[in-house]
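User: Hi! I'm working on a homework problem where we have to compare a predicted structure to a textbook description. Could you give me the structure for the chain below?
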Amino acid sequence: PEYTPVEVEQFRDVLYTMKDIEVAGWVRSLQLRGINLPDEMKAEVFLIIEEQRGRKNKESK
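Assistant: Happy to help. Predicted structure tokens:
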């Protein structure tokens, strides 16, 4: 689905009000409900998730 600029900004507002550690769970919750991220946000969301996973892996070593 295509989102309006206002809708994309609403997704972005939610994204940047949560902690990095919460982002993967939020994305999974959206997927389970059949809600797709706006295409223009996917790269930034997955970058946050990858950075968080990298931090978690360093902490577990």
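For your comparison, note the following. The chain has one domain: 5-56. The two ends are 41 Å apart (CA to CA). Good luck with the assignment!
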